[in-house]
Write the C-alpha cells for this entry.
Amino acid sequence: MAQKFVTDIYPQGGWFAVTLRSPVAKGTVKSINRPPNMPSSYMLVTADDIPGANEIDDFPVPVLAENVSYIGEPVALLVGPNEVEVEKYASQCEIVCEEETPVFSNLSTDSGSDASDGVVLAQRTIVLGVPFETDTVKTTVQGVYRTGIQEHWYAEPHAAVADVDSQGKITIHTATQWAFHVRRSVGKMLKIPLEMITVVLHNTGVHLDGKLWYPSLISCHAALAAFVAGKPARLCLTREEDFRFSPKRNASEIRITSALDEKGDLVRSDISLAADLGAAGVFTDEILDNTCLGALGFYQTPFVSIKAQCAQTNVPVQGPFAGFGLAQGFFAAERHASRVADALRIDPAEWRKRRFLRKNKSLAIGVPVQDHDNMDAVMEMVEAMSDYKRKWASYELLRQCVRENNAAPFRGIGIAAAYQGCGFLHASRADKGNYTVEAILKEDDTLEIRTSAAPSNGSWERVVRLLAAKILALDENSVTVNNESAGAAPDSGASSNSRTITVITRLAARCCLALKKERHHTTLPLAISRSVKPSNVHAWKESARPVRTSAVDKNAFSPISWGAAVVEIEMEQAAFVPKIRGIWLCIDGGRILSEQHARRAVTVSAIHALGWASREKLSYIDGKIIDEFIYNYDIPSPIDIPPIEARFLESEKKANEPKGIGELPFCTIPAAYAQAVSQSLDHAFEEIPLRPEDIWAAVQGDKK
C-alpha cells in the first residue's frame, strides 16, 4: 500500500475545493450569496451541478444537501486556483436557510417515555425464553449504563484528490477502508460506468473503522469539483473541520433490570436500549443489532426482553467505531454483571464463570456456543496473570475501610469478559456481493496477490506474504501484495470487523492452495481467484419466542473469539485521580498468524479503549461540538499509558482458523475499569468516560 498521506498530494495545475456548510441544524437552503468581490474564476458548485444521484451509495447521505439535517452539513463547494483565496472567499459566502425545529437527543430509556421526538431509524422488540415464576425472585438489580461519543483521531484529516482525463476517466486518491464503496458512490453521482473510475488507496493509519464510509462523501466532493472545473481538485478538511463534522462512536443508554433467585442465578432480564446515530441511517441495523447482542451478554438467563431503538437527531451522522455497537452493549452487560455480583457480595469473576453459556446453548441469533471451555481457560489465565483473586479479596477489605473513611490508599480491581465475531458486517444492502482475492503465479515464480483490502498498517501484508510463501515454497521476497488501486484489484469488501486478518487472509490462502495444486499441470502465468458472500438471513422477529433469526449475519459470529480483561487502579486521595497499575488481557483468537502483529493490534486497541473509558469527554451542545471539547480533547499520551500485558490462548485444534481480536479490548476494558474505580470508592459508577471530576462529584454527593 502507498504510504504517502493524501494531504501530501498537490497535483500540478490542481485547483482547491472548500466545503460550504449549513449554519442551522434543520431546515431548507434558500440561497447561497457569493462575496461581491470574488473573481469569476472561482466556482460555486451546488446540488444543481450533480449530473447523477445526489446521494452516496447504500446510505441516505446527500452529497450536497438542499434540506439540511445538522449544523455543518455540506451544501456547496467553492473551487478555485489559489488555496488561500478560496478559503477566504468561502468564509465570506452567506448561506440563507429557512430554519425548522431540531431534535438534538433521543437517549431516554425511562419506562413509559418516548425516546424519539423525530423519525425512528430502527427499532427492535425481542423476547427470548419462557416467563418465570415470580416467587423464585429473591433479589432485583437495576442499572442505567451510558457511553459517550468518541473521536477517531486519525493520523490525517479526511481528504481526497481527484483528476479527470480527456476521455472522462477519473482517478481518486483517498485513504479509505472501502475502496469499492468510493468507486460506486462516485459513479452513482457522476452517472458514469465504474470502469471509468480508479481509486488509489493511501495510508489510513489507525482508523478504528472511522474511514469506512465517510471517505466516499469526501471523494464525491473532490470528484464533483474536478468534473465541474475540468481540472484536478484537492479537498482536504482542516483538523478542526474534521473534528466537528466527521462521524464519531455513537452515544448509548442501556437500562438493565435483572431478577435473581436465591442461588444468585438470573431468572429474568429486561433491557431498554437507545442509541443516537445522528442525522442519517448509516449502518443503523448493524450498530443497533450488535448493541442488542452485546447488552444480552453471554450468561444463562431463562427469560429476556429487549426494547431498543434509535431515532434521527440533528447532529452529524454517527458511524461505526471499533466494535460496531458491540462495545457499547458489552459495557452495559459486563458492568451489570459486576453490579449483580456486588449485590450478592461475591467475586464478580466467580459469578461469571458459573453462569457462562455452556455446551448445547446458543447466542440470541441462533449461533451455537462453540469452544465454550475456552472461555473458562481465558478467565483462569487472566486471573493468574493479574493475581486477580488475591487482589480482589484484599481490596474488598479496603472497601470496608472506605466506608469507615480511613483507607489509605484506595485500590480496586475489575474484570470483564466478551466475545467477538470475525466475519461480515451484516447481511444488509451495505455489505452485498461476492468479495474476492486474486493470486497470480508468474513465469519467474513470483506471486502477486491482488485485493482491495486496506489494513491500517503493513504488518498484515507481511503475514500474507509469509503464509503464501510457505504454501507455495517460495521466498518471501518473491511475494507481493497489490492493494493500491481499486481499478486493478478485485472487490474485497470493507476492511473492518477484523475481516482482513480472517476472511481476506483465508481467501488468499485458498488461492495459494489452488495454485499449488494446478501449477505443475498448466503453463504460467496462472491466475486463480476465490470469493465469499455473506449468507442470507432475516431480521429480528418482533415479540418472537424464542428468536432464532437475526439481521446480523450468523457467519459473522461463527467461530467466536473470546476475551477477558482485568484492570487494577489506585485512587489518589486528594484529587481522586485513578492511577492505573496494570491492564491484563487474555484472548482466544484462534490461530495467531503473527504474535507480534496480534499483540500490537490488541495493545493499540487497549489504549483507545482506556481513553474512551477514562478521559475522552465529548458531546454535542445544541447540535455543535464547542471549542472547549476540541482544544481540550484528552487522548492518552505515551506517559499516560499503563503497563499492558496481552496473552493468547493456544488451541490444540489442528484446523483452528484465525479469529478477530481487535474489538475485544473495547468490549472488556471499559467495564473492568469502571468496576475497579467502583470498588476503590464503594460507589457504583455506570457511565463512561469516567473522569476525575466525575469521580469527585460522586464522592461529594456520597458525603452529603
